[in-house]
Amino acid sequence: MAEESAKAEPGREHPAFTLLGPLQVHGPDGPLHVPPGRQEIILAGLLLRANQVVGTEHLVDLIWGDDPPKTARTQVQICISRLRKLLDRAARPAAIATRPPGYVLTTEPGNVDAALFTDLVGRARQLGRQARREEAVGLLRTAAALWQGDCLSGLGNHRLANRTRHLDEERLTATELRIQLELELDRHEQLAGELEMLVGEHPLREKLRGQLMTALYRSGRRAEALRTYRRGRDLLVRELGLEPGPELRELEAAILAGRLSPDAAAGSPTRSTEAPAPRPTADEEAPATATPPSGPVLVVPRQLPADVPDFVAEPGLPATLEKILTGGGDPEGGGPVVITGKPGTGKSSLAVRVAHRLAAADFPDGQLYCDLRGTTGSPATPAEVLGRFLRALGIPGQMIPKSPHERAEMYRTRLASRRILVVLDDAAGEGQVLPLLPGSGDCGVIVTSRSRLTALPGVHRVELDVLDEDRALELLARIVGRQRVERERPAAEALIRTVGRLPLALRIVAARLAARPHWTLASMVCRLADERHRLDELTHGELTVRASLSLTYDGLGEKDRRLLRLLSMARTATLPGWLAGALADDHRPFLPDLLDPLVGAQMLDVVGVESSGDFRYRFHEVIHVYARERLAAQESAELRGAALARMAGGWMYLAQEAHRRVYGGDFTVLHGDAPRWCPPQPYVERLLTDPLAWLDGEQTALCRMVGHAADEGLHDLSWDLATTLVTLFEVRGHYDLWERTHLRALEAVSRAENLRGIAAVRASLGSLYMRRNQAAPARQALESALSLFLTLDEPRGKGLCRRDLALMARREGDHATAGALYAQAMEDFTASGDAVGRAGVLTQSTHVLLHQGRKDAAQRQLEEAFRIYESLRYTGGQARTLRRSGQVLLEQGEPERALIALTEALEFCRGSGDVIGVGHLLHDLGHAFTALGRTGLAREHYEQALAARE
User: Fold this and answer.
1) Is pLDDT above 90 for 585?
2) What span, in angstroms and rounded, lies between the C-alpha atoms of 228 and 638?
3) Which of 376, 453, 569, 644 is least surrounded by Cβ atoms within 10 Å, i.e. has the fewest?
4) Share above pLDDT 70 across residues of the chain, in percent, rounded to a whole number
């Protein structure tokens, strides 16, 4: 049976990736060469956490420790790129994907020997619980065969060695489990020799020593069993100042008294009905102690803080964590649980709740708890925590070694044969937690941290977020009373929205309301409405949101704190990654890297991925308020103004670049002289692959930036951005946004007496009013703008105004005035080098030529305009020219040729997303089908045109 189990294991002979020994990647024809150094270390770090996100900061730390170069992140990215190529040649599928805040290597678990080992051991444990010992032993031997030496032997990286120690410990624990099962299968004589060797290699390992004593005793070698105990006791007392643990002492006593039954498992003495065995002779050695030992005594620690009675969590979450911590029938269960989340999400409360529910039944040997103070200025050191835990476990202070490594060894020894739950609250990082992990799989561990602790091996990670609305209302009801919440349900819902459903903030608000029964929930909503004083209201006794956030904030580096403050100026719901570069004035090639520390500290959330593959970020409402408070307190008005100008300049640069890519250049638009902030060019290329789609996606942010710039006195950027956005407003029919942004910009330029800005905004508003068929305001705006442009001698501005005034004159039937204005506009656009402006005049003025009977001249102008648009790849212009050609052909009585031109124009408009153009062309096609006598198709196109305009 065991052999069949072993043979059935997929990937047993050659997992694609081996860590249990030298690091190797196997290809179809054998091992592949992994370049030594950085690539080897990064690959090892990713494989140790296969299918889980590994932070970039962690990879940097693995390679350079506390002294990384400035280019560390870039070098990591280069290594990742090369490793991706290497993985393409691996024997089994694997890939490295970018995931915030780092990377994840995805592959089937059976392709990594370490993951396969963990899976096999977990399944063996389950079989052992079911008394299927033979099958369990087979799986454990299969697991052991995966090891080809110490984990990552030969890599020579002490930081990785710290992280592989856990796997080496699991290897030894699996060996102990296999031996235990084989002793239960009466294989004591075959095991004695192996156990002698193992005890020699691990002399302080009490479980192995107990198994050796059992094997010797049951092989009829009682004296050697007692000698083994005596040697172990002497070693423990000499090296650690400790007496053997209770199980080993009980085993010795059972052997002395003859109470170890022949079929008993190792370390499980049972009472025998036979007479006690005689005391050993001198040859057999005396027992280790004639009286109870005077060293450490067995203590059951109970250190958990009080449970929170009104605790509320996602349904089923506590039960899921309990199942993980206890195994719960899942072979992959039983590992440490790491609870992460932003400040105030209830990480500690959840950990304590789960710990209390498991304490009595599942971890009867005790519960250890420590606040690691990870978010304070003085986090607890592992040596300090180990000292506390050892004292709690009954070790006298004078016996606790000074060396942190020796403390860790003593700690693991004390936990090795016990079921103890360890709760490590508010961890700073992996280095603080690793020495505190028990070596035994029988113990449970819960860690809470605001960092994700991605480098901890074999953990189950749970990330808490804010409560959903139902859970938030439930928490409020439990504290202030259900009747009170139901009586003011709308106010209750408004209240939880105001605090962003953050559990800590909601608990504080609820506590204040509970203490003041005469207050209404609506009154609390009013008190929280003023953002400037909101954090003052979120305080009750020792509970305060500001203090909670300050702990994380103070733990950030100065540059990260400053960036957090500056980011709070943005008025957008979500933040693009390049914004960090603009605010910090940092031109590194991968700007989102600046945000990684804030994401890692849970002060900023990743909420999506752009079409370019870059991430979008967002503040939680309360954190945003806190960051704005810090901004006002710590940044000078001058510094805030400079950062805001760079942010606005970044939006302006990208909008202007998007316009250029749509129109083929800076055509038919005026620009101011305000400085731009330019993101790295590769970033811009990814972002503006589809410029209209980018403008569409950032529409809200761009419009808000117009108003923000206007409010802060950046009038030149406000009008420039507003008029540039007509590129989007025109084709999408966003006439309300067009007017709203322009009126805000007009207020700013008017206050600043910026004549050029006033003229540009009025000219653009004139175009808008003309499209709305508002002739009087359109004429007023265009004529006043033209007057200013004449004063300023601005040829492009004059051309834009005269072109639109010509169109108005033509609509009114004044073809002579229209012709004259078109001629002047042509001169203006020629003088300013505006090719699109010229092509637009060529297209529009064909109406005047047709009125004069000059059909050939009109056709030549349309052909010339189309060539200009085609050379610039401006599809919108090509569509307008084709549409005009189709209209001319209809007027000339050639509906079939018109149909071809109009259909081609429709395809251009649909391709570019020009919904207004699509509506016009569907209407024109209705005319063409009517002229052809195809009334059914004509009606269909008229209906589609109406639907498009709606």
Assistant:
1) yes
2) 77
3) 376
4) 93
- What lies within 8 Å, CB to CB, of 483 at 6+ separation is none
Rounded Cα distance between 883 and 877, Å, is: 10
Name the one residue in this structure whose structure tokens are 């084989």.
182
Distance CA 922, CA 903 (A): 9
Structure tokens at 897: 């040729």
Asked if residue 354 lies in contact with residue 446, where contact means CB atoms within 8 angstroms, the answer is: yes
Q: Residue 208: exposed, middle, or buried by beta-carbon count in 10 A (0-12, 13-18, 19+)?
A: buried
CA–CA separation, 938 and 113 (whole Å) = 69
Q: Render pLDDT for 895-916 as a digit per residue (tens, 0 to 9).
A: 888 888 888 888 888 877 777 7
pLDDT band at 949 (very low <50, low <70, confident <90, very high): low
* Burial of residue 12, with CB atoms counted within 10 A of its CB: 0-12 exposed, 13-18 middle, 19 or more buried: middle
pLDDT, position 261: 56
- For residue 41, pLDDT beyond 60: yes
Give me the numbers of helices (H) and strands (E) for the chain, helices first please.
45, 16
**Tokens linked to 50:** 């296969």
CA distance 781 to 790: 14
Q: Model pTM?
A: 0.64
CA distance 619 to 574: 8
Which pairs from 582-588 meet CB under 8 Å and 24+ separation?
A: 582/643, 582/646, 582/647, 582/649, 582/650, 582/677, 582/679, 583/643, 583/646, 583/647, 584/559, 585/643, 585/646, 585/677, 587/680, 588/74, 588/680
- Cβ neighbours, 10 Å, residue 810: 20
Query: Cβ(104)–Cβ(51) under 8 Å?
Result: yes
Helix, strand or coil for residue 168? helix
Instruction: Write down the pLDDT at residue 13.
Output: 55
Both structure tokens of 291? 């009286």
Question: How is the chain split among helix, strand and coil, in percent rounded to 5?
Answer: 60, 5, 30
* Residue 389 confidence (pLDDT) above 80: yes
Residue 947 half-sphere exposure toward CB, CA atoms < 13 A: 7
> CA–CA separation, 11 vs 140, rounded Å?
15
Give pLDDT tens digits for 801-851: 999 999 999 999 999 999 999 999 999 999 999 999 999 999 889 888 888
pLDDT by residue (tens digit) across 205-244? Answer: 888 999 999 988 888 888 898 999 999 888 888 877 778 8
Helices within 241-281 (DSSP H only): 246-257
Residue pLDDT, tens place only, 690-742: 898 899 999 999 999 999 999 999 999 999 999 999 989 988 889 999 999 99
Q: At what angle do helices 637-663 and 875-891 cross, to 10 degrees?
A: 40
Strands 17-18, 24-27: pairing is antiparallel
Q: Any residues with CB less than 8 A from the CB of 818 and at least 6 apart, and which?
A: 806, 807, 809, 810, 845, 847, 848
pLDDT tier at 919, thresholds 50, 70, 90: confident
Q: What are phi and psi of 633, to 5 degrees?
A: -80, -30
Determine the pLDDT at residue 458.
79
The residue assigned the tokens 């290497």 is 86
Inter-residue contact 715 to 757 (CB < 8 Å): yes
Instruction: Give the single-character DSSP code of 52.
Output: S
Tokens of 274: 């036979």
Tokens (6 digits) for 561: 């704190």
CA pair distance 718, 712, nearest whole angstrom: 10
In angstroms, the CA 12 to CA 33 distance is 21
C-alpha 698/C-alpha 682 separation (Å) is 19
Phi, psi of 203 (to 5 degrees): -65, -20
Question: How much is the pLDDT for 330?
Answer: 53
Q: What contacts 391, CB < 8 A, 6 or more positions away?
A: 397, 400
Tell which wins on pLDDT, 363 or 614.
363
What whole-number distance in Å separates Cα of residue 822 and Cα of residue 814?
12
Q: How far apart are CA 218 and CA 232, in angstroms?
A: 19
